[in-house]
Every structure is written in C-alpha cells, then in structure tokens.
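Human: If only I could read backbone structure tokens as easily as an amino acid sequence. Take your time, and here it is.
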Amino acid sequence: MSDAADTPEESLFHAPPLAEQERMVEAMLFASADPLTTREMQGRMPHGCDAAEAMVLLRKRYEGRGVQVVRVGDAWAIRTAPDLGFLMSRETSEQRKLSRAAIETLAIIAYHQPATRAEIEEVRGVSVSRGTIDQLMEMEWIRFGRRKMTPGRPVTYVVTEAFLDHFGLETTRDLPGLKELRDAGLLENRPPPGAFPGPGEGGDDDDGDEAEDGPEPEKGQEDMFGA
C-alpha cells in the first residue's frame, strides 16, 4: 500500500537534467566561503536531484584546470591547483608566523587527536601555555573534542576542517610522516620527557610568552604551519 502511495507523489516531480544539477553544485561551491557537504547541497537543490552524482561530473570537469574541486573532510570546496600555489606567494609571505611552541602543539594534536593538554605536554616534554592553545583556537585550526573517560574527564583537542582546508588535506591520514616533519625542521628531536628539568629549572614554558615562543621558526616551517 505504501509503495502505491509513493508512486504518484514521485511522478509529480521531475529532477532537472544532470548537467543542470552540475551547474547548481558548482554555483554553490563557488559562492560559499566554507566547504559544503553533499548533504548540505542536496538540501538546497530541487526535489529528485542527486548532489553526489553531480559532484562526480564536476570533479571530472575541473581536472587539470587552474582550480580544482577538492575534498575537505566530509565536505567539498573549489581551491587553487596545488602546483599554482606559487602565484599566491605574496599573500603567504604577509601572513603571521606561528611560534615553535604553537607549531609543535598543532602537529601533536593533528597526529595524536583526540589529545589532552597533559598528553601534548608529555610529547613536547614541557608545559603548554594557555596562550598557545587559545591562539590555535582563535585561528579555528583546533577545537574541543570529546572528554576522555578517565579520572577528571579532561577535555581533548582535535583539528578542524579549516585546518585540513588550509593545508589542502582531505583527512589527517594525508599528513606527512613524522620523519618528514623532523627533517623539515617542523618538529624537534627531543629527549624523553623525564630528561627535562622540572619547574623552576627552565623546563616549564607555561609562565611566560618569551619562553613559550622560543626562537623564530626556521625557514620551511611556514610552508606547512605558517599562519
């Protein structure tokens, strides 16, 4: 009975041609400041449209072009082709750089998410300044994750879609290996946490921005974690 009832309703609507649906998703991605999921696009399209199928056609159409349709987490966006990034070097050079502490904190969260502050400090070997976390939160590169089911229920941190979008990543699985980061100078080869001096002996960088920021990031750091 339900099948019979559904048939007349479906016959009342005729989905636009697939080529027109492709134009629709292209228009939405072009106009949107943020990546869009197929579900979000589907909700804006006429009855009977298939946003996922339209996206397949759109991605093929943009292959080899100056801009590409890329996946950002579960969403989609139109972005400059990676090999043409040098054309944007002027905008990149004007961006604010992150301190080494912020770079390391961001990398640890990206590779170990969800990560608590205590876990970040254990990997770094020194305390993490609240200002470092706040800066990364303000940039919308990290956000709060679920609380850990451990004593105290500490909050965790995870990277955002904005982080993935900024670095042209589909998921965190696309991040370079830790060895590559160390070879590029993005992570230091620190000794085990127990080898660091305790509070008051120069090992805690939680009390001052000067100790927290450390030296200016080396050349090449801004290529991946420059802000």
